[in-house]
Amino acid sequence: MDVSQDGLWIVATTPTYLLVLNTELPTSSEAQKIIGFDKSIPKDGRKAPVKLQLDYKDVIRLVGIVSFTPAKFNYDPQTLERTIVTSTGPFIITWNFRSVKLGKVSEYRIKRLTDTVIDGHFAGQGNVQSVVVAMENTTAIESISGKATEKKGK
């Protein structure tokens, strides 16, 4: 599990999907945000989590068995988080966090590496284009830029 730096968002990892949860409590004032870390979220105030998962065609064509590593937000003290990264087998998968917040959950990038990925972290503060990847036999800095896989009609 990872938490955005402002505490408004949580990304939780299961073996086959990610859940992105908004912790902001409804208030009458936009100026004063209250988050679930400061006060309990009432049952009727909970927002539905956003489920991120790979399209079944990508699972069959590329990945096979999905077993996600813990997902993480990028971190930059100057800006809000922009990307979520996880991996499964030899693949790095990234979602644009801004798109996820708008409900565009089927746009993601998949990059195949040469070895099974054990863990990945963004390379330095603010760098959302590179991920430091720990693999079974080596470590590497991998670029995650490129065209997103986009699924229409979801």
What does this protein look like?
The protein has 154 residues and is mostly beta strands. It has one domain. 8% of the residues lie in helices and 38% in strands. The strands form 4 sheets. The protein has a 5-stranded antiparallel β-sheet. A 4-stranded antiparallel β-sheet has the order 1-2-3-6, with no helix packed on it. A 3-stranded antiparallel β-sheet has the order 11-12-13, with no helix packed on it. It is elongated and about 50 Å long.
What structural category do the secondary elements indicate? mainly beta
How widely separated are the two ends? Answer: 26 Å
Low-confidence regions: 147-154
Helix content: under 10%
Strand order of the largest sheet: 7-8-9-10-14
Task: Write out key terms for the chains shown.
mainly beta; 154 residues; 14 strands; four-stranded antiparallel β-sheet; Vid27; VID27_C; Putative cytoplasm protein; five-stranded antiparallel β-sheet
Short description:
The protein is mainly beta and 154 residues long.
Write the layout of secondary structure elements.
Blueprint: E1 2-3, E2 9-13, E3 18-22, E4 24-25, E5 34-35, E6 50-52, H1 56-63, E7 72-73, E8 83-88, E9 91-96, H2 97-101, E10 107-112, E11 117-122, E12 130-135, E13 139-143, E14 149-150
Antiparallel strand pairs: 1-2, 2-3, 3-6, 4-5, 7-8, 8-9, 9-10, 10-14, 11-12, 12-13
